[in-house]
Amino acid sequence: GRVAALVPAAGSGTRLGRGPKAFVEVAGLSLLERSVRALAPHVDEVIVALPAGMELPAGLPARAVEGGDTRQASVLKLLRATDADYVLIHDAARPFLSEEVIHALREAIPETGAATVALPVADTLVRQSAAGDWGEPTAREGLWAVQTPQGFRRELLLAAHQQAERDGYAATDDAGLVARLGVRVRLVPGDARLFKVTTPGDLLLAEALAAAEDR
Ligand code: C5P
């Protein structure tokens, strides 16, 4: 079946403080360009959700739609812009996406129609107390930090978004919306390099990684 990569890139980048985050450059290439270039060779089309008034960088193998007020709204607009059989949703803010991750995800999708890349949690986890100190420890066994890309049968993800819209349900990712329908979401071991560039510290890490990988 045909596969579309859908890239939400319409965030404002408030925590980073450098303007619309997808356009922030790491070693001369924006987060958006890095993400699209990683996806394009492996899919039939790439569609990007952009902040209102912004345009795609010249030469990118993608087309654009205007994003929404939330990530969830941006993804719904992207879903409505394609009739592909499968969709891969990938945050522009995770620019270090390898071919291996894309292949592993694509292999996992057909079984239930839904799969996400995720990382087993390595740190000790604790819920803060009412005073903001050490509260209740939480066993990390069996806990995963959810990343992107996430892959779905397009009609399944569309149904999940429509149900969430009817219920006024908000989620920070797409797999959560599908799981809510009772559909099994496969977990595919991801990659620490798929961290989301969120804070100025993340940008330093990204610069270091880009220097090593672009060499
Ligand atoms: O804000 P956060 O880093 O969680 O955003 C994750 C991804 O969703 C980013 O790539 C961002 O550009 C995108 N996004 C979007 N539309 C919004 C908010 C975020 O496409 N309204």
From TrEMBL:
GO terms for biological process: isopentenyl diphosphate biosynthetic process, methylerythritol 4-phosphate pathway. Keywords: Isoprene biosynthesis, Nucleotidyltransferase, Transferase. Pathway: Isoprenoid biosynthesis; isopentenyl diphosphate biosynthesis via DXP pathway; isopentenyl diphosphate from 1-deoxy-D-xylulose 5-phosphate: step 2/6. The record marks R140, K196 as: Positions MEP for the nucleophilic attack. Its EC number is 2.7.7.60. Transmembrane segments: none annotated. The keyword Translocase does not apply. It is an enzyme of class 2 (transferase). One of its GO terms (molecular function) is 2-C-methyl-D-erythritol 4-phosphate cytidylyltransferase activity. SUPFAM superfamilies: Nucleotide-diphospho-sugar transferases (SSF53448). Pfam families: IspD (PF01128). HAMAP family: IspD. Catalyzes the formation of 4-diphosphocytidyl-2-C-methyl-D-erythritol from CTP and 2-C-methyl-D-erythritol 4-phosphate (MEP). Belongs to the IspD/TarI cytidylyltransferase family. IspD subfamily. This is 2-C-methyl-D-erythritol 4-phosphate cytidylyltransferase. It comes from Deinococcus reticulitermitis. The lineage of its organism: Bacteria, Thermotogati, Deinococcota, Deinococci, Deinococcales.
